[in-house]
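hiii, so i know i said id send this last week but things got crazy w the move. better late than never?? heres the sequnce for the chain we talked about at the cafe, plus the structure i predicted for it. fair warning i was half asleep when i ran it
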Amino acid sequence: MKIVEQNKIYSMSEEELNNLWNYCEILLQTWKGNDRVLEHSECFLVGYCILLFNQMRLKGLNPNPKMMRNALLDRLPEEEVKRIMIIGKDISKRGIPIYKKFELE
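okay and structure toks below
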C-alpha cells in the first residue's frame, strides 16, 4: 500500500479517501520512530492526516478526528502528543507537500 502525493488527495473518490484514512490510522498505530517502516517524522504524518481529514470533510465524509491523537497517546506522553498535533496542524495550514511516496516493508 502507498500513501499518495498530497495533490492527488483532491481528486480521490470517497471510497479511496476512506481507504487512505484507514491506512493512515494503521500507520499511526504501528509507528516505531526511525525504523524501516517510515523514515519521516510523526509530525509530518499527522500533518498529512490533517490535510486528508479536511478534504474528507469537504466531500461530506465524517472521519474520526480523535484517531490521530489516540493512536499517538498509545505510546507517547500527552505533552509530546500535543506538540506533534500542533506542528502537524501548522504543516497542513501551510500546504507543504508532505509525502512523495513510500511503502511499508
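btw The radius of gyration is 13 Å. thought thatd interest u
miss u guys!!
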